[in-house]
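Priority: medium. Attachment 1 of 2:
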């Protein structure tokens, strides 16, 4: 028995865009909706796909719905950490809130929006948070606006000192703990990460949305056309990952070269060596790491900038 990757666009939509009970289970777990806050019913809304990165065929995928109270939910899977990702999520959440109104309608018609991003990477890496002496962000984090000056005092007309009209939740799959979680959001994360590694449904997985999602990911239930669509998207995902890795490597190389060029100029300036415009341009425009290393060594003793960049 083989199970498809739930992070795959085709599979994600096959499960969550066609089975409202499973989607409700995901939403309730990720948003910790229990008791009278439990989401009981949802209605699907039109979804949209946006380009992930220039030149990559893979798209950001999302599923949109609203509950009976009118709160709108946007659930998206993000496979690659592209520049400006958080800014885009915030922009789209605010846009989804503002776009509810048509010309002439009153603001009282606005309903809450919750944007949920399932990320196949660390969005806020623990190592980086530690380096900046900042608190670590948990695997599942929820965000909304709060009043910053009071100590949990209530605002007039508000139940608490929070503004919940636009909310965000991020599930960082790369932070999944090694042990197998038993329930809730962590179990969803485990399924997103490990479903392709399974050869059978875990016997201790109880009936409910988690088990139903895994059963729908069983490749034996796919038609040949569905298998072809799944594999086609897997190829697109691999291409997008390779493209993203190449872009990151190129960015790191450019940053490293820029740093070396700045070091050469800093050494020359510190030693009182004048740097003419032509030499400065040659140094800053060079992208060859070996050449820059040679120039840096020369800069330590060179009498002129021209001596640093000479051909021999």
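Attachment 2 of 2:
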């Amino acid at each position: 028995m083989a199970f498809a990757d739930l992070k795959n666009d085709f599979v994600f939509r096959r499960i969550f865009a066609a089975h409202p009970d499973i989607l409700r289970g995901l939403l309730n777990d990720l948003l910790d909706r229990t008791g009278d806050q439990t989401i009981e019913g949802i209605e699907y809304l039109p979804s949209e796909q946006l380009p992930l990165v220039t030149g990559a065929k893979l798209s950001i995928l999302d599923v949109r719905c609203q509950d009976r109270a009118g709160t709108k939910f946007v659930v998206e899977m993000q496979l690659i950490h592209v520049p400006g990702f958080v800014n885009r999520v915030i922009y789209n959440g605010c846009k989804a809130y503002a776009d509810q109104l048509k010309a002439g309608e009153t603001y009282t018609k606005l309903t809450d929006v919750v944007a949920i991003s399932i990320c196949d990477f660390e969005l806020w890496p623990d190592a980086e948070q530690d380096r900046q002496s900042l608190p670590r962000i948990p695997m599942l984090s929820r965000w909304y606006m709060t009043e910053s000056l009071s100590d949990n005092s209530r605002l007039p007309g508000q139940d608490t000192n929070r503004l919940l009209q636009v909310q965000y939740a991020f599930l960082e799959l790369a932070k999944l703990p090694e042990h197998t979680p038993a329930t809730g959001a962590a179990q969803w994360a485990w399924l997103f990460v490990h479903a392709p590694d399974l050869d059978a449904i875990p016997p201790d997985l109880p009936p409910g949305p988690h088990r139903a999602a895994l059963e729908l990911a069983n490749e034996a239930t796919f038609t040949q056309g569905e298998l072809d669509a799944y594999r086609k998207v897997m190829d697109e995902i691999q291409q997008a990952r390779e493209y993203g890795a190449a872009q990151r490597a190129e960015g790191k190389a450019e940053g490293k070269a820029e740093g070396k060029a700045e070091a050469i100029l800093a050494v020359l300036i510190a030693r009182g060596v004048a740097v003419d415009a032509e030499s400065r341009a040659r140094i800053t425009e060079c992208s060859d790491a070996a050449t820059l290393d040679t120039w840096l060594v020369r800069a330590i003793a060179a009498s002129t900038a021209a001596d640093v960049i000479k051909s021999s």
